[in-house]
TrEMBL record:
Key word Metal-binding present: no
Keywords recorded for this protein, A-Z: Methyltransferase, Transferase
Pfam family, one: Methyltrn_RNA_3
PANTHER family: CLASS IV SAM-BINDING METHYLTRANSFERASE-RELATED, METHYLTRANSFERASE C9ORF114-RELATED
Protein's recorded name: Putative methyltransferase C9orf114
InterPro entries in UniProt: Alpha/beta_knot_MTases, NA-bd_OB-fold, Put_MeTrfase-C9orf114-like, tRNA_m1G_MTases_N
Stated family: Belongs to the class IV-like SAM-binding methyltransferase superfamily.
Region of interest: Disordered: 1-39
A Gene Ontology BP annotation from the UniProt entry: methylation
Key word Methyltransferase present: yes
A Gene Ontology molecular function term of the record: methyltransferase activity
Leader sequence residues: none
Amino acid sequence: MAKKNKKQTRDAEVEPELNTKNGENDDSHNKKKLKKKRMRKKIPTVSIAVPASIIDNVPTLELATRLAGQIARAATIFRINEVVVFDNKSNPDNDSVLDNVGDESGAAFLMRILQYLETPQYLRKALFPMHNSLRFVGLLPPLDAPHHLRKHEWFPYREGVTVKERDSNSGATLVDVGLVKNVIVDQIFEPGRRVTVAMGTDRNLDSDLPRQVISSSKPREEGTYWGYQVRYAHNISAVFKDCAYKRGYDFIIGTSEHGQIIKSSDLEIPSFRHLLIAFGGLAGLEESIEEDDNLKGKKAQDAFNLYLNTCPHQGSRTIRTEEAIFISLQYFQEPISRAFQC
Ligand SMILES: C[S@@+](CC[C@H](N)C(=O)[O-])C[C@H]1O[C@@H](n2cnc3c(N)ncnc32)[C@H](O)[C@@H]1O
């Protein structure tokens, strides 16, 4: 899929560990860090899990591209922080989904389109080599997310791609952040790596003032939606188990027409750090759970903290996954914000 030296996706937002350096000042150093960490506002994350099989059931590349585009739009509209694409495999085949060449699996395809659309337009040429799967992406409406900045726009943060070391032994790297000139950051990075740059207050691009590479979670912690991460899971239990957040998901919701019916205004979600909302494929989450050896004997209702029907009284016999994502994310908006009012 991707060339190995290019880093198309951002590093997962892992919660930082405290430094445990040796020496006399460690204690006060760690105390300060602890205090700072406690003071830092805990911004919750919302993840969605989407089955790769929805792509396998689409007859043409163009329709598959449009479907992937709808999921990317839904994720962005509802400020989703992570999209997990899952298969129904009982055995992991060493994550080869990421390295497929030529005709690729539904999962590889869906991840590629999601990642491509999430990437600011000015970085795509550098980060995404030409690929047959990208043939129809030009037809898709853009995500127009806050980090998809235009050349004339100034924002405290910008996504960029590292270009090259400024000059030998300078200890600095040039980064293309989509402005008329590359900026300098005071660290060495290999070329072709996606980074988030704190732009500082100096708008003069001719000045040599180095800027900082920061965690991609920083803008989000300050309240700006900064796109989503994309992760692969070989089955539904790996969605839960291989969570990229250090402490895992603390509340997991499954969606189904067989789920419990609760009015959105009555739904109570406990305050959470990392929420996951899972969607099923043609045969629903029930099938994903039945086919998963790690969940043998479990009923769908038991695999989730809540198993919900978010669209009761449906007029069509089936609600498609991509439709259910929009319907459900709208349904969850108020309960999620209520979870943080108390
Ligand atoms: C084609 S449906 C699968 C139909 C299946 N009978 C089911 O479990 O809902 C695909 C996915 O859309 C979502 N979905 C469909 N109808 C829903 C509903 N009324 N409430 C919540 N989610 C629904 C679920 O995630 C489901 O797995």
